[in-house]
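Example 3.2
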Amino acid sequence: MTNPYREAGRVAEGDRFVGRALLMRQIASTWQVPGRPSNARVVGHHRVGKTSAVRRALDTMPPDASVIPVRLNVGSQDSGVDIFRSMVRRVLQATSGDRRLASVAHAIQGAEHWYDLLEGVKTFFASVKDELGLNVLVVLDEFDRAASAFDRLGQFQLLRDLASEPDYSVGLITISRRDIEKIEIAATGGSILGGVVSTTRFVGMFSDAEVDSMLERSVEAGVSLHSGRSEIMEITGPHPFLLESFCKRIIEIYEVTGKIDVPEAYSQESPLIEAQFAKLLEAVNVDTESRGGVLLRDLALGSKSALASPDLPRLRSTGIVIGNAPFSLEFGRFLTLRTGP
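Structure, written as tokens:
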């Protein structure tokens, strides 16, 4: 028997990708109009499927020889300079080392001073547009890491120029937990990029139909998890990573015992679940200057006054709050224990 949830925790590709039809259309709209791609920020909490959604949208986009997609993980780059060099290398590779770009690309890789790299990058992307007639779509994943990778405001300014000035035909998609403005301020004390990457696409929790699709995969193991749906939802809610990981554990137990044992699965999986709850709580508190944890606890306890909080719309947009309560009963119980009186 093969566990259909065995790849839980990895980027969802192929048949593992579940739903997100509206989000896919929203992301794809960035490049569906001929010509220069537009800009967008994809925002959501850790492990809700931001990267999976963007990759899926890119992988299923109709072939368009006029658009060069460049995907980079900011977390794997040592510095802002490395990010721009990587962008240039990817575009050069996509054009098979076009001689009209090769010399300036080589100069960028060897530039020792910021001004030389700055001018080289501008010249390179202007040539991509004017001499090759091509558009570039840059996707920067884990953009939160830019707070440590970028060491000067000028690097954010260069991204802004590439993504907005008419000299270039570049579109920019950032993928992050925090808003671009907060990332910029953390890095350099100022914010300039957010103004041109203003379209926000939030990635939150699964819909009911998407939860059902995830549970339906259990039939590949010769069993149905739909009978345990309510128990599972009390623990994980529609959180994509928690749901898939928990289903994986349930099937592992079933393989040994022949039983769908949700309580035993929770007993074994609770350290991972509580660790994820703790990360979410920490992130919410960072984003709200420590107000969010108390707000979530009050919502879990049924407080009506909490509904007036200005932080509530953001928590709903990111799926941490569904309706007027935290996304799962177990998360609510966790909050009442962790956030104090």
